[in-house]
Every structure is written in C-alpha cells, then in structure tokens.
Amino acid sequence: MADLRCEIAGVKAPNPFWLASAPPTDKEYNVVRAFKAGWGGVVWKTLGEDPPVVNTSSRYGALHYRGYRMMGFNNIELISDRPLEVNLQEIKRVKRDWPDRALLVSLMVPCTEDSWKRILKRVEETEADGVELNFGCPHGMSERGMGSAVGQVPEYIEMVVRWCKAATRMPVFVKLTPNVTNILAPARAAKAGGADAVSLINTINSVMGVDLDTMAPLPSVHGKGAHGGYCGPAVKPIALCMVGEIARDPECRGLPISGIGGIETWRDAAEFIAMGAGSVQVCTAAMHYGFKIVEDMITGLSNWMDSKGYRTLDDFRGAAVPNYVDWGQLDMNYVVKARIDQDKCIRCGLCHIACEDTSHQSIRKIKENGKRRYEVIEEECVGCNLCAHVCPVEGCITMVEVETGLPYVTWAEDPRNPQRLAKAAE
Amino acid sequence: MAEAPDVRAGRLSPAEYERNFADAHPPLTAQQAMVEAVRCLFCHDAPCIEACPTGIDIPRFIRGIQSGNLKGAAETILEANVMGGTCARVCPTDVLCEGACVRLAEGKKPVEIGALQRHAVDWLFERGIQPFTRGPITGERIAVVGAGPAGLACAHALARLGHEVVIFEKRAKAGGLNEYGIAAYKMVHDFAQREVDFILGIGGIELRTGIELGRDVTLGELRRDFAAVFLGLGLQGVHALGVEGERLAGVQDAVAFIERLRQTRDLSTIPVGRQIVVIGGGNTAVDVAVQSKRLGAETVTIVYRRGPEAMSATPAEQEWAKSNGVAIRHWARPVAIEGVDGHVRAVVFERTPLDGAGRLEGTGERFTLPADQVFKAIGQKLVPSAFNGTAELLDVENGKIVVDAERRTTLDRVWAGGDCIAASVDLTVAAVEDGKLAAASIHRYLMGG
Question: In the A/B pair of chains, how many CB contacts fall below 8 A?
Fold first, then answer.
C-alpha cells in the first residue's frame, strides 16, 4: 500500500484529497462527515465579516450532456452566510477533534489591511492549519470589490498577501481565479507577496443556458439570471493547463500548488499531482455523489501507485511538468498514422465522414459485395487523431507511430521554417 | 406399445458439446463493463447492497470499475464475499441485487451487477493477486466440516483473524455444490477449483479430503480436539417421491446426475434419454433439465406441483429453461412411474389445483408423459448418520440444524451454516454469509469478547 501522506506549505494530511471551500465545507456537521468518510483535509467555506451575506433562492445551474448528469456545474452562491463566531467555534472544535486532517480556512474581506488583520487574528485562535485567500470567486462578491475583483489585479494580490504574511504565522494559500488572460501574472504576484502556496482554479464565469420559454439565463432567480462560477468535470482541462503553467514557470518555481478543477476520480487527482500539485481539492463530485467517493479515490490512487512502483506522492509529483512545453519545443519530425482494426470496426462510417468533411480526406469508403469497409489512405493521413476520437469502439482506431529515422527537430530548427532559413542566410 | 427406452451417450458431435457447455453468459469486455458501470447511479445507502445477503458495497465496486481501480473493486467485493467470483456467476441476481436496482423503478433495465462483479473478480484472479493476509496468529484451532461455500467462507474468515483451521471434506475435492452441483455452463474453466485455491491461498487452512463426519470422525472427537466446530454439511439425502415405480432404472436423482456431468472430462460419455421428465421446481430442476437438453435430449419437461410463482427457480431461471427448449408444466404431481422391462418409460401425473385453504388437492384427473429418463429434483435433506457417535444431540427441526442469529447451534462450541441449517435459502451467497457470521461469532467466543 502506497504512502498517500501529503505535505504542502507545511500543512500535513493523511492523503491529498481535500474538499474545496464550498457548500460541502460550510459547517461542522458536513466537515465531520467528510473526515469520517476519509477525506484528508478541507478548506472551510469562505468566512467574511459580519453581518453575514444573504444568498438567493435558486443557486445552482447544471450542464447535463446527453445522459451524463452534471458534466458542468455552476453556482451563484456567495461566501458563508453564517455568523463569523459560529464558524470559528466550529472550526476550533473540528481541528481539536481531527488533528491529523488538514484544515484551511478560506477568507474574503474588504480590501483594507485592518480587515485582513482582524480576521486573521480570529482564525489563528482556532488553531486551523492555514488560510486560503479567496481571490477567485467570480460572482456576487466581485461586484463588492472582493473575490476575483482582487484576483484579476496582480498588484492587489501582492499587496493583500503581503499584509496577510505580515499579520499571521499561518501558511497563506492564495486561491486564484481563472478569469484572467494569463494565470502567471496573479501567480507571480502571489509569490512576490510571499504566499506559501496557490490553489487553483476557482470557478469560471459562466451562464449555463437560457430558458427559451421565459428567456431567463440559467440558473434564474425570479426570471433573471446572473453569471455564476463554472466547475465540474468539464473544467478539468482548463485547470490542468493553468496548474501546469505555474508548475513550469521559472519565476514560480518552488511555489506549492493545491490543484482544483473537475477532479472526480483518483486518476484525475494523479494527473494534477503529475502536473505539479501537492494536494487536490474536490467539490462538484462530492456534491454529486456524497463524500463516499473518496474511498475509491484513496484505494484507486494507492493501487495505481503500487502498480507503478511509486511509494510516495513525491515519487511522481511533477513528473509530467518537464514534458509540458511550448508548441515551439515539439518534435516536427514525429509522425503518427491512423490504423483501423477491421475486426473491431462496426462500419458506422463516423471516421470517414469526419475526415472527409472536416479533415484531410484520408479515410476511404469501400463497398465490396454489399459490405462497407473503411481504409486509411496512409499518404494522406496527417495524424490529427480526429478519427480515433470520433470512433465509438474502444481500441478500434489507434494512432501508430511511423519510424522516420529523423532526429527530434523543433520548429525553430525545421528547414520548412522561413525564419530559420532567413537566420541561416544571415 | 411403447418403444424401447432410448438412453444413450454420445448424441452430439464434439463441436456441439463444446458449444452447448461453453460459458452461458460470457464475460463483459472492458468496454462493455465501462458502459455498464456508467449506468450505475452510485445510489446512497443503495438498495442493491441491502438485497445482497453478504452486503457487498456494490456502488463502490462499480465506481472502481468506472475509475479504472479494478483491484480496489475486486477487493471491495471479496472483502464482503470471498466467493464473489462464484456468486457473480450463479446468484439469482434478478431477485437479489439487480432486482433491487433503482433503474427498474425508472422503468429501465437494471445495472448488470453480476456481470460487473465477475469482471472485477476475474481481473484479480487473472493476475493471481492475493489481497488477503492473516492477522496475528492466535494459536486457536477450529474444525470446519464440509468444504462447500459455508465451510470455505468460515475457514477463510477465521484464517484472516489468525486462527488455524482444519477442514474435513468427505469428497475428493473442495468446493461443495460449486464444484459438484451447479450447471457446467455457469462455472466453466474449472472456476470452482480456482476459487478454492484462492481461498486456501491465505494460509492457515488445512484441507483433509476423504473424511466423512460420522464415519471417519465424530462430532464428539472434533469437539474434544478443537476449540470450536463449524458444520457446513450441506444436504446429502435426496427426498423420495414415494410413488410406485421409483426404483425403475432410469429414475435418477438430479444432483447425482449433475455431479457426474460436472466431474466428467468427456461429456460424450454421459448417457441421456430422448424424452426426459424432471420433477421439481427449483434451480436444480432447471439445471438438470437444461443440461440434459444440451446433452442432446429431444424433449425435456419440468413438472411442478404448483404455479410458476411458487417455484424456487427464479423467473430468470424459468426463462432460461424455456429459451433452452425446456417445457414447464405446472399444477401436477407424479402418482406412478411406468416401465418396460425394469426401465422407466412413462410418468403418470395427477392435476393438483389448490383447495380453498391453499392446500394442493388431488383431482384424480391424470395425464401421462412418456419418459426414458426421470430426474427427481424435489429437494434434499440432512443425513442423520453425520451425527453418529455424538453423545449430545443437536436440535434439528424439519430435517435441518437449528441455529441462532450468530449461527450457533444448541450444542456448545458448535456452529453451523449453509444448506444444512433451518434458516437456509439454498444459495451460495447465503452460505457465504453464514460462514462469515459464524466465524465472527467463533472469534468473539475464542477471544473472550
């Protein structure tokens, strides 16, 4: 059994599976249930200044994609709507009762040094393991100058982190919003301000749909809709990209990352860890299925690590980062071609029409004795993978590497690159 | 005048035998398993778990299949039911887990839990992974009588807890009905023995075959020599029909026929009639009927004294019989078996509607079915000679051993489970649960808990 213990910015947990700051971590009752189920840590739902916020009725929207429920999910819920004191007492009790679990407290207060100082002092008294500054929430709070309104301005991030680091001994995590053009600017600002770690991604600005009868954007509150924060399995690729960008950035080197975004299984978690994350945070999957999903996450990750000979998370943490490069560093001489396994082919023709209509006309349709058959025209195939993706039969179309005998050549070195030729002529 | 009885071996070509006795329900491919696993809703406090006598956490193992955690999935199954591999093949899932699937309430097909369970356990078996280890050795020795599902499950659970177990089995092989009594096409590729090897693989279990309780060893001796005794005897005696002609050649016990079929290396050596009558309404009746059809019998008729809903063969099993060309006739009981030259040639039945009080009523109205082979599948009973040499007697009720909720018998330090106990429902999965419960109870007793 692999060792799943994790430590990130000095915060220790028995496993890397944490619940993100969100409704599941809103109060003692839920958090205790989560710990009983086996979660390694939680980030308590964001605390703010009293009086607590008031939430709307009708808060969540969902994207159900052809039978798959909640492939994407969004919410317009604000931060904790319970009094600060109640939350603090519960946090203190939970940390006392569950000392081995990671307990971070998410915070969001107005952008003044006093506000941050005041609340940090209160949180310190709970003996929580650390704080996570919520600079990510894209809806509601941002209209009040908090959340992503701070997270979208690197200078603000750096300033607030600096205040917080000066005011507390607790590790400071900064939760980043993906609603920016380049995630590196806020990440570097957090690091410059002295952040101990970053957590990302927070949710993405989104409208889940439009009710075509009432013409209300979804989710709607009394006929009107506001943009909400998008999350769930659909956002994982965006999150992985942003985590990877930070992990490979020389300026951010050494900045621990807690990965968030569409994590539902141990495999998703392993991918984030391979991309450099020190822990992962989950919300939508727990909101869909309950806390019990962590059981399969724990045994699945452990069994996979055993099968690969990884004893600890550090054995593969960041292992994919050196392979995450700019396009310009890819090998221009690498060639793959589609191969159709005729024994597995069910003759649906999807590969043919995808290639014929929208790609490179390299899958031939043949009719012999009334039977259909599809064949790859190797000379035409550019190895785009489209046919393999549309094929409904697992393992029927594979992309097979062609031995060219040519060396690894990047675009900068490629003879077909006019800039390279120009350079050579100089 | 009736023709001479036609009971012959070798009715089919080798290819036909092979096809007829291949896996009745072939395993799912990885992609089929994924498609099926995704249909599971991962219900909270799932009804399928409640419907499983061993309480397997079904949504959890299906989630493991979904996530690619096959090892975790198999371990979840085997933790609750060490015979999860056999149960995946033989359980009447239509009345257990799959019958409770919430997809049915939605008007849809239930998730194929049995097939998914097989997928996960087969994955583990194919890789030879042994997920179980023994606890700290306790030095306690326990005797288990009978190496069927109850005995093996009990022995395995005790070995996990660090006890030493000796299993006494009268037959040459362990496995009980998994090895000797279930239709061949449900347990292909010697699965019963592979599972026995897996169970014994934990260590701490000694299997002594060819030892029969009451003949080679007595209960008194076992109680003297072991800290505790578990009886997983099964049922060896076969009920008699009690009708004229029962001793004619060609009138056979279904269980004995199935046993011979399961143990042969060459199915073409098994003689089977042209016209077969099976008397009974349980899974054994279906197993013998379908297997004789697949051995090449021309007509096979199951005759049962009550209606289809009273048959202990589940609706799916009854359908399976029908789709194999077996006819099922209800509301009739045998009153005489007729023969020619000492060999059965026909069975005479009397129609049996219910009277007002729900009892079967003989109407005197009769019909005759030609038969050159008749299989009796009307249930089995405990053989009392098993208790020879025991000074104190176990309480036995209706021919079965009386036990409490922990599977304790009325005799000190003796537990029992499986088909031989009064509460039995004659299912592998229930026998496994009996073995588990008894092992937990024995452990509590030995550890002074």
Answer: 42
